[in-house]
Amino acid sequence: MLFQLIVGSAVSAINIVLHSLFTVGVIGLLRNVTLSATGRFGLQLSGVMVATALILMMAHTLEIVVWSLAYLAIGAAPADSNLLYFAFVNYTTLGYGDVVPVKQWLLVGPMAAMNGILMFGWSTAVLFEVLQKTIERQGTLPKSR
Fold first, then answer.
1. What does the angle CA 81 – CA 93 – CA 11 come to, to the nearest 5 degrees?
2. In whole angstroms, what is the distance from residue 117 CA to residue 139 CA?
3. Percentage of the chain modeled with pLDDT above 70
4. CA distances from 102 to 52, 69, 113, 142 (A)
5. Within 13 Å of residue 124, how many CA atoms lie on the same side as its CB?
6. Could you tell me which of 119, 104, 136, 133 has the C-alpha nearest to residue 17?
7. Residue 131 half-sphere exposure, CB side, CA atoms within 13 Å?
8. What pTM does this model have?
9. Would you say the C-alpha torsion 139, 140, 141, 142 has a positive or negative sign?
10. What digits encode the pLDDT tens for the residues 94-114?
11. How far is Cα 88 from Cα 99, in angstroms, rounded to an integer?
């Protein structure tokens, strides 16, 4: 059980680092590029929010791939299961019940779900922060006619 906690914590830590890189680096860059373009504020704001949501979706997908690779490495998924599907259903929902970790790795599924819920909460906070900062920054930019 201790080894399951260590493995789950290690994969969760990798996902947190990946999520940080995406949220800080890529979203900041896209926000600056979108805001530097001339045009209507509503279109700029929409562009920033769509780009942010897409980047967060890519980050979550990458995190799910990391979980599926971890499941492969430790042999946590049943033999005939699709690892990507297995990782997706465990990421926040603890699965649909159609595929569960093998008995010796039962603790890893809930750890993946805990990590996914944490990352989705973080993503929600990032969306609101990007929205707020974009609106604040738009107020400081010179108005175009």
1. 70
2. 34
3. 79
4. 36, 16, 16, 59
5. 6
6. 119
7. 10
8. 0.76
9. positive
10. 767 777 888 888 888 888 888
11. 11
